[in-house]
Amino acid sequence: MKNKYAKKVMDQVRAKDPNQPEFLQAVEEVLSTLGPVLEANPQYEENAILERMVEPERTITFRVPWVDDKGVVRVNRGYRVQFNSAIGPYKGGLRFDPSVNLSVLKFLGFEQVFKNSLTTLPMGGGKGGSDFDPKNSPHTPGKRCSDGEVMRFCQSFMSELYRHIGPDTDVPAGDMNVGGREIGYLFGQYRKLTNEWTGVLTGKGISYGGSLMRPEATGYGAVYFAGNMLATRKQSFKGKICAVSGSGNVASFAAQKLITLGAKVVTLSDRSGSLYVKNGLTTKDVAEVIALKTVRRGELSEIAASVKGAKFYAGGNPWQIAARVDCAFPCSRQNELNGADAEYLLKHGCKLVAEGANMPSTPEAIASFVEAKILYAPGKASNAGGVATSGLEMSQNSERLSWSAKTVDDKLREIMAAIHDNAYEAAAKFGQRGNYVAGANIAGFLKVADAMVAQGV
To answer: Pick the catalytic residue: 91, 106, 115, 127?
Structure first.
């Protein structure tokens, strides 16, 4: 980190938050790219913009007591990190997973500030969730929580969260393990407590204010962004061999879109292991995965035998299976793709990586991709389609309208193209043409920083 101001702030963050590795990683990744911008704009240091930007405006922690199916009282911890509202109300997902802690949510909220800025929509950044694990019932380990247990947890969680959110204050959405079922329970409790119907949550069901294309948006958006990157080299997805990690909404719909564009998708994964299909998954296979995850809530290992030509690697890494990979789409979770994985991908022909998850590549992996000068898109740019469509859902709720799937998809394509072009042009303007990491950080930073300067201290 060559810029003195950025280095000073990074040292301060390390001193204040030494036990928050994910947050430190996210901050360093951004600050390390902002040197040229900070040197050209001394007003940012004069107004202590970095010091203010790395500190959440508000962090809320609360207990979540609930009763399981055996009548036993359980207690989890809930969070909402409201990071920055300079350009709009806080906007960001809720994550239910045992890995959730303040470091993870601060990293996600910090990333969300730049991601939301890139969408061009008026949304600030926030994130929240709980260490509640819907995949493990507390009284029957290894079995998922029942719908009733998930409902009671969500109702208790919202009974505290509702005080801190609102359509013009903070608009949560789903994230890991928070899908349509959970959003429905959360929205129902919010409506009951406040006695009003507002678009306070996005990712809602179509029957009560949700937007068409919202489940598909993050995965489709990542593919649209990657397609724009390929176009800079006069290429398309036709015939490309693609490795995808994960099997939730992001991964499944990314795989679906890639297949329709003529790519061959050879991997998917989940906590049970990795599925490898040398000749490529079909759209029917992907539909089966979507049903498995959203209806039956099962594991990939349960359907591996029914996928033609599939090999299942229990606990396997999706990045070191295929003999050739043209494009990689990490769509699972943070730091899932490490330096060794990056070297394997590069050695086996990978020329494009587009992140569907939040910060799925480790710093070592990112350094390898950037040094190799492949097309590499950081999640804050390539996975912004989900929150962009959440913003479109907010617009529909405000207008009391419901747009067609084509209208939403067309707007999503336009937004992802704009994000790509803004990141590409920002990198070029500051002497780093083709570096989407620097470009996304710079483009996202400038809008928020200028808003903060304009609004005073």
So the answer is: 127
